[in-house]
Amino acid sequence: MSFRFTGTRRPRSPYRRVGFAGIDSPFNENPLVFQRSQLHMPSIFSKIIAREIPARILYEDDQVIAFLDINPIAPGHTLVVPKHEEPNLLASSEEDMIAVIRAVRLVAPAILKAVGAEGFTTTSATGAVSGQSVFHTHIHIIPRFPNDGHLSWQPTTMSAEALDEVSAKIKNYL
Ligand code: 5GP
User: Fold this and answer.
1) DSSP summary character for residue 172
2) Quick one: CA torsion of 128, 21, 53, 109, rounded to 10 degrees?
3) Is 135 in the pocket of ligand 1 (CB under 6 A)?
4) How many other C-beta atoms can be found within 10 angstroms of the C-beta atom of residue 137?
5) Closest C-alpha among 22, 3, 72, 78 to residue 48
6) Could you say which of 71, 89, 142, 164 is the most buried, measured as most Cβ atoms within 10 Å of its Cβ?
């Protein structure tokens, strides 16, 4: 049996006029700072904040929560997350990002002592292209050990002219 719509109007899509991160849409002025749809589902991190799913919570205050990453790159790998859900650090408020950095500075030394690490890397992916998989702002704290081989960026060389050009282009937008 085939379905036929018999109403007088087509049902409106809840996606109308709403842009989505990472998808090229005329409604996305900046695809990284997108408007939430009415169908927005809480992120996995909001579910942790609401205690709907378990996590190894290390620290919590009014604005921020920090918990162990479930698939750690190294022992003590921690995520520091603003409780107010936004998709990335451009969308989160300045106040929330200050609170996140304050929590990073509080929690990181404890992690280092606990796991005997000599240092740590903080990283935060913005956009799927950068590897972001959870679209709720977060900063990773990844404890580092000598010769651990993690996160080895590959530097390139760029001519002085090319550096000047990209610098001028960026400043144009500031
Ligand atoms: P991203 O890929 O967005 O930079 O980082 C997301 C991180 O969240 C990943 O490192 C992933 O292991 C972690 N993660 C995803 N789901 C869960 C979860 O349910 N619990 C915890 N504790 N971490 C999670």
Assistant:
1) H
2) 60
3) no
4) 26
5) 78
6) 142
Q: Within a 10 A sphere around the Cβ of 172, how many other Cβ atoms?
A: 7
In the block, which residue shows the tokens 């996606």? 15
In the chain, the amino acid numbered 22 is G
CB 74 within 8 A of CB 59: no
Q: Would you name the residues annotated as active-site residues? A: 138
Residue at 68: amino acid letter: L
SS3 167: helix
Query: How many whole angstroms separate alpha carbon 125 and alpha carbon 74?
Result: 18
CA of 65 to the centre of ligand 1 (A): 14
Residue 82 CA to residue 138 CA, distance in Å, equals 7
DSSP per-residue string spanning 41-95 = PPPHHHHHHTTSS---EEEE-SSEEEEE-SS-SSTT-EEEEESS--SSTTTS-HH
Q: What is the full per-residue pLDDT of the chain (174 aa) written as tens digits?
A: 444 444 444 444 333 333 444 444 444 456 566 555 556 799 999 999 999 999 999 999 999 999 999 999 999 999 999 999 999 999 999 999 999 999 999 999 999 999 999 999 999 999 999 999 999 999 999 999 999 988 778 889 999 999 999 999 999 999
Q: Which secondary-structure segment (H or E) carries 103?
A: helix 94-115
